[in-house]
Amino acid sequence: MAKKKSKTAKPAQTTVLGIDLGTTNSTASLATESPSGPVIKTLNVDQETLQGTYTHTLVPSMVALAQGKEWIGEGAKRLRGNGTELYATIFHECKNDIGLKRTYHKAKKGYRSAAEIGGKVLQFLHEAARTERDGEFDRVVVTVPASFDAHQRADTLLAAQLGGIELTGGDLLDEPVAAFIDYLAIKPDLLAAQKAVPQTLLVFDFGGGTCDIAIFRLQKADEAGKLNIATLAVSRYHRLGGGDVDAAVLHEVLVPQLLQQNGLSTFDLEYREKKREVEPALIGVAEQLKIKICDEVRKLQGFGKYDDANRAEIIVKQPGTINLTVAGKALKLSSPTLSAAQFEKVLAPFLDRDLLYARETEYRLTCSVFAPLQDALDRAGVAPKAVDLCLMVGGSSLIPQVTQALDEYLPNARILTYQDKESVKTCVSRGAARHAFMLAATGSGLITPVCHDDIGIRTAEGAVTLVPKGTALPCPADGEYAVYEGLAVPQAIAKGGSCDLRVELVAGTEQRRLFAETWKIVGPVKKGEKLRLEYGFDENQVLKLRLTVAGRKGTQEFKAEKEKPLSSTVNPHSKREKALEIEEDLKTAGLPMATLMQKMTELAQTYAELGQHDKAIGLLRAVMQKKKEPDAWLVNRIGMLYGEKGDVEKQEKFYKEAISIAGSWHGPSFNLALSQKNRGKPQEAAKTLDQVLEKFRGAPYLVLRASVAEQMMEMPLRQKLLEEARLAFGTVGSLERWELGWCATAASMLSDEKTRQAAEAEIQRRASGPQSDVDEEEAGALPMQADTSERGR
Asked: Higher model confidence: residue 408 or residue 578?
């Protein structure tokens, strides 16, 4: 709740504040009591800049120190690159560091952590909101990504505290849930239409730099007009966003126009010149053309005139002339244009479903929106046809072709969309304000998090349920611990002896293992002596356990925490933490050369997973220099990273070098052929693959070659290769993960529905949740059930 001031009289009207603390931009919304219900207002925030006051609903999540003062929001943004140093005097995208142990060591006191920077932004928004309110707020809610873990949520609470806002765990709301709450308020018929049976909600957040997927299970609550929600899976992908679409428009449409208008050939500009000089000058133009063509397509769709239109004749233009200097030459681009046909060609790889799993590299994964989407569905154990509702949020979700593609992919889902950019960008803070109002007015939100399956502890006699399915969180309701004393020590332990007790949590009727650890109990302890189990499952889905021998408090104790035990979450936080740990290890003097190279390679892989490709490439190049001998794996990996950056020239250069030193390993040839095919060069891809297939008839290679044959309209060859691949694959259970994807692709091309479903089911089985590797015979003895059991407070 918001901090109270005893001298301030509480106004008659209930007023609450919702804040969306974003990575790039933040917003704040008020909800004020009225006879007809809460009135929602998104704040237009005054932001001081060197050029004067700038007022907007979006506040850049940036802080800068310049000219002897602190700048927040647009003022800080305009100082970027103007004599400021990142993480010393200017701070942005610090939300990515929330929950990490990272310190901004060059910064002065008060600006040295992500929590402190977040606190500055929150304080700025809170103070701006106070100008609209005479007194303290009745409640403040701050949103966080659904993927945030306990450390990140705790750091967000700290940021709020540093910003003068006192929150509890219940005042943090997951961003996709906030967006859905806002949508329910705009479309109340959706809430009325909710059925008694559970429904599956997918929130698709396609922003400028990320693609976040969250899958929930919804069900009507016992209280009228409210819903219960359970998180099934969350994914956060940093490799895919609207910025990638802008870059594709730039390189595939605007650069050719620039060359043509200036009498240059394709080879007159090097990649580096395009990337460092042309791209910064034209990326804003590409974004504007993208927005214009989307508006035009949406308008034509609204009149039912787009499907039959000649897409090449639907053209938008950016008036004026852009002057730029490239490699010392003055170039001009006059009135650049973008047609619907060109835009659909640009979008094709972003909406590709055929080669979703078909890769040895992540080349395709970095392009298609269906990669993170299918990944989340797999881990949730949900088929596309089982999704009932799909809420589209994020600015890039306004691209009409993206909405249409998801509509086709989720055949039974009702697609929920916002119609304007303003609503998409402010829906999270509005939803937070609506949630805060319900908390202030009724003590509970519109949507209550629940446990969507039974959670129990396993005993020698069977599982004992601790948190029943459908229980509202937190459990217990006061956020403390429940107590269960129905467990007992399974064997006598002599003085000086010990017993390993297995503490194992399971879920559902099938008793899926969620957690398993051993607790060493030291004797003397009698067989049947009672154990005291204290447990709690909070609103942030953190399950906490504390186990002691009853009556011996303070002597021996087992403690454990399990975050989101019933949902599968992809969160880059752990990777950033890992990168920081390895960076610290590399500072250790005297590391053996083999260990040093292994850690550098591991750090490069972690950087790559975080999308920091330049850092990854630099490290792998350093490892190659230290090895002083050719290494095909390293060269191939560098080629993959250049591909993920979009530098196809260096990508192919490194693939070809890897091929020359790879010997009997054909991975670089596969990657090169896939790159050639995806760039519309099937003849080159065919030549690369044919050289491999003379020596090695691997099933995925045959399928890729068949796909190339299809691209070249060589249908008899396509069929022949697919039949050979079908025989070469064998049983789906024996295939590696990347082979399964190619198997599914081959089955789809052959219209072999049975094999395709089997392959996709195996992919889903392997993806849905962590598989425990605890050896039951070596993991200790299970507790027994006591003669008398008691559960409760």
From this structure: 408
Q: Is the CA virtual torsion 286, 291, 295, 301 positive or negative?
A: positive
Q: 635 — phi, psi (to 5°)?
A: -65, -45
User: Residues 378-394, buried b or exposed e (16+ Cβ, 10 A)?
Assistant: bbbbbbbeebbbbbbbb
Kindly list the distances between the CA atom of residue 791 and the CA atoms of 51, 543, 714, in Å, as whole numbers in the listed order.
Answer: 65, 16, 69
Q: Is the pLDDT of residue 770 over 50?
A: no
Interval 284-338: pLDDT, tens: 899 999 999 999 999 999 999 999 999 999 999 999 999 998 888 999 999 999 9
- The CATH architecture of the domain made up of 199-240+351-428+444-448 is 2-Layer Sandwich (3.30)
Assess whether pLDDT exceeds 60 at residue 239. Answer: no
Convert 630-659 into a string of H (helix), E (strand) and C (coil). Answer: CCHHHHHHHHHHHHHHCCHHHHHHHHHHHH
Q: For residues 179 and 430, what is the distance between their CA atoms, to the nearest angstrom?
A: 8
Between helix 242-249 and helix 340-347 the angle, nearest 10°, is 130
Alpha-carbon distance of 319 to 177, in angstroms, equals 41
What is residue 171's DSSP assignment?
G
Q: How far is CA 730 from CA 76, 175, 329, 354, 534, in A?
A: 59, 44, 58, 21, 50
* Domain covering 573-767, topology: 1.25.40
Question: Which stretches of 375-476 are assigned E, i.e. beta strand?
Answer: 389-393, 414-417, 447-449, 455-459, 462-467
Domain ranges in the chain are 15-179, 199-240+351-428+444-448, 242-350, 455-565, 573-767
Q: Which two tokens stand for residue 769?
A: 């949740």
Q: How far is CA 691 from the centre of its chain?
A: 39
For residues 136-171, b (16+ Cβ closer than 10 Å) or e, as one string? Answer: bbbbbbbbbbbbbbbbbbbbbbbbbebbebebeebb
CA nearest to 274, candidates 413, 773, 266: 266
Sign of torsion over alpha carbons 110, 115, 117, 121: negative
In the predicted model, is pLDDT for residue 771 greater than 70?
no
Q: What predicted TM-score, i.e. pTM, was given to this entire model?
A: 0.71
Spell 547-575 as b/e; 16+ CB within 10 A means b: bbbeeeeeeeebeeebbbbbbbbbbbbeb
Q: What is the pLDDT of residues 706-730, one digit of tens each?
A: 999 999 999 999 999 999 999 999 8
Count the Cβ atoms, other than its own, within 10 Å of residue 292.
Answer: 16
Hey, which bits of 152-294 come out as E strands? 172-174, 199-206, 211-220, 227-237
Architecture of domain 455-565: Sandwich (2.60)
| C-alpha–C-alpha distance, residues 641 and 617, integer Å | 7
CA dist 282 and 251 (Å) reads 10
Only one residue has tokens 């001009």, namely 332
> What gap in Å lies between CA 699 and CA 712, rounded to an integer?
20
> SS3 of 102, please?
coil
pLDDT per residue as tens digits for the range 152-199: 889 999 999 999 998 876 899 999 999 999 999 988 888 777 667 889
Terminal C-alpha separation, the chain: 26
CATH topology of 15-179 equal to that of 199-240+351-428+444-448?
yes
Taking only the tens place, the pLDDT of each residue in 145-157 is 888 888 888 999 9
Provide the mean pLDDT of the chain.
87
Task: Give Cα separations from 537 to 62, 141, 214, 251, 651 (angstroms).
Answer: 35, 21, 21, 50, 48
Paired tokens of 503: 């503490």
> Identity (one letter) of the amino acid at 400?
P
